[in-house]
C-alpha cells in the first residue's frame, strides 16, 4: 500500500512498520495482556498502556472492540502523541460503549426479572380478582335469590291482603243483605202490627156496636113487656133486666179481660218483631179472631134470650125502666167508648 490510497485498516494486522509504544498516563507501568483484559472487563481502564500496538489491538479485539487506524498516518510516522490521542479516544469510546452495552444488558436482565416479578404479581392479582369475582357472583346470586324470595313473599302478602279485603267485602255485602232482609221483616212486622191493631179496633167497634144494638133491643123488649103485662110483668122484666144487667157487667168484665189480653198479645208481638214469622203472626191473629168470635157468640146468645121475651114486653115497662134507671145503656156505651179512647191514647 502507498500513502496516497492506503485507506483504513484494522490495527494489529501487520500494517504498521514499527512498534508504537503506548504509555500509561498514571504511572507508565507496563501491564500484562491478561490484566488489561480483566481491567477492561471490569470497566476500570481509562488510560493508555506501553504495550505493543498489535497486542493492544488484539486485546481490544478480544473485547469485541472494532478499532480502525489510518495506515497513512502510521506510515508517515506521525507524532506518537497524535496517534496516542486518537487511539485513546477510540478506545475510550469503545470502552464506554461496552460499558453502556453491559449496563443495558444488566438493565434488560433487571427489567426481565422485574417483568417476571410483575407478571407473577399480575397472575396472582388476576387469580385474586377471579376469586373475588367468583365470590361476588356467588354473593350476587345469593342476594338475587334473597331479593326474589322477598319479592315472592311480598307478592304472597299482597295476595293474602287482597283475599282478606275480598273476604271483608263479601262479609260486608252479606251484612248489608241481612240488614236489608231485617228491614223488610221489620216493615212487614209493622204492617202486621198495624193490621192487627186495625183488626182489634174493628173488633172493639163491632163489639161496641153489637152491645149498643143489644141494649136497644132490650129496651124495646122491656117496653113491650111493660105495656102488655102491666106492673107484675114490669117487675118480672125488671128482675130479668137486672139479671141481664149483671150479665152485661160480666160481659164488660170479660171484655176488659179480653182487652188486657189483646194488649198483652200486642206487647208480645212487639217483643217478637225482630224474630217473628208469618206463622206466629197468624197465630196471634187467630187468637184475636177467636176472642172476637167468643164475644159475638155471647151477644148472639143474649139476642136469642131477648127474642124469647119479645111477646111478653110492653111500652109501660120501657117507660118505667127509663123512669127508674134513666138512659143507662147509652151511658154505658159512652163509658165504653171513652175507655177505648183512653186506651188508644195510652
UniProtKB/TrEMBL annotation:
* Composition-biased stretches (Basic and acidic residues): 170-200, 312-328
Where do the record's region annotations for Disordered lie?
170-237, 300-346
Q: Which domain of life is it from?
A: Eukaryota
Its name, as the record gives it, is: Uncharacterized protein
Source organism of the structure: Acanthamoeba castellanii (strain ATCC 30010 / Neff)
Amino acid at each position: 500500500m502507498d500513502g496516497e490510497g492506503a485507506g483504513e485498516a484494522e490495527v494489529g494486522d501487520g500494517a504498521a512498520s514499527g512498534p508504537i509504544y503506548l504509555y500509561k498516563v498514571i504511572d507508565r507501568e507496563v501491564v500484562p495482556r491478561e490484566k488489561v483484559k480483566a481491567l477492561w472487563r471490569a470497566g476500570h481502564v481509562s488510560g493508555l498502556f506501553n504495550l505493543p500496538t498489535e497486542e493492544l489491538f488484539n486485546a481490544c479485539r478480544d473485547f469485541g472492540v472494532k478499532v480502525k487506524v489510518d495506515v497513512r498516518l502510521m506510515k508517515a510516522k506521525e507524532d506518537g502523541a497524535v496517534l496516542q490521542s486518537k487511539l485513546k479516544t477510540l478506545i475510550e469510546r469503545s470502552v464506554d460503549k461496552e460499558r453502556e452495552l453491559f449496563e443495558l444488558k444488566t438493565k434488560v436482565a433487571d427489567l426481565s426479572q422485574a417483568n417476571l416479578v410483575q407478571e407473577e404479581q399480575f397472575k396472582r392479582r388476576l387469580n385474586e380478582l377471579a376469586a373475588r369475582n367468583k365470590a361476588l357472583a356467588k354473593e350476587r346470586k345469593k342476594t338475587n335469590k334473597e331479593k326474589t324470595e322477598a319479592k315472592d313473599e311480598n307478592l304472597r302478602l299482597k295476595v293474602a291482603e287482597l283475599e282478606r279485603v275480598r273476604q271483608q267485602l263479601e262479609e260486608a255485602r252479606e251484612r248489608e243483605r241481612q240488614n236489608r232482609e231485617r228491614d223488610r221483616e221489620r216493615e212487614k212486622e209493622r204492617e202486621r202490627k198495624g193490621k192487627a191493631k186495625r183488626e182489634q179496633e174493628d173488633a172493639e167497634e163491632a163489639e161496641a156496636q153489637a152491645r149498643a144494638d143489644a141494649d136497644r133491643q132490650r129496651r124495646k123488649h122491656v117496653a113491650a113487656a111493660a105495656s102488655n103485662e102491666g106492673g107484675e110483668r114490669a117487675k118480672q122484666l125488671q128482675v130479668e133486666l137486672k139479671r141481664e144487667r149483671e150479665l152485661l157487667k160480666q160481659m164488660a168484665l170479660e171484655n176488659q179481660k179480653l182487652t188486657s189480653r189483646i194488649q198483652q198479645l200486642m206487647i208480645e208481638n212487639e217483643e217478637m218483631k225482630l224474630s217473628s214469622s208469618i206463622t206466629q203472626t197468624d197465630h196471634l191473629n187467630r187468637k184475636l179472631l177467636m176472642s172476637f168470635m167468643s164475644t159475638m157468640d155471647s151477644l148472639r146468645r143474649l139476642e136469642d134470650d131477648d127474642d124469647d121475651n119479645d111477646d111478653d114486653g110492653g111500652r109501660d115497662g120501657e117507660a118505667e125502666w127509663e123512669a127508674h134507671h134513666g138512659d143507662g145503656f147509652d151511658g154505658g156505651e159512652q163509658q165504653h167508648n171513652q175507655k177505648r179512647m183512653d186506651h188508644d191514647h195510652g
